[in-house]
Amino acid sequence: MRTIHWIVVASTLLLWGCAGAPEPEQPAAAPQPAFKPVGTVMQIMEAVVIPSANAIWNVPAEAPKSDEDWASVRNSALALAEAGNLLMIGDRAKDQDAWMRASQVLVDAGTTAFRAAEAKNLDAITAAGDAIYNSCEGCHMQYPPTTAGGGESQGQ
Predict the structure, then answer these.
(1) In the chain, what are the domains?
(2) pTM of the predicted structure, to 2 decimals
């Protein structure tokens, strides 16, 4: 009986020792700054999406010749991908369903174009340009632009 008693005591001490000391407290994560959208959807379209998409769409007619030309195409593709993210922030998102999916399609198409530009692949840039066009057209069918610039009226 005494042996069982010591086995129970030893087991308890062993388990207690295995539990160890509590893990040290991790420092609190710094609070994330709040998003502060500045431009409207129309302004993002006019300042970022339209010029960036045009740069991608012009590649088949005017193929990049230098590293600087390819960097410009790559930067335009990156701007398109990030514009899709901007369209999902705050009041710019018209809804949490179709608008978000359309914005994600732009992110994906821009990312594909970005990778194609990094690879300096003309065929892949052309295909990405088609995906970007389809992304824009699909969104505009669901959310028709209300101004000549391709966005919503001021203030929205």
Answers:
(1) 41-142 (1.20.120)
(2) 0.74
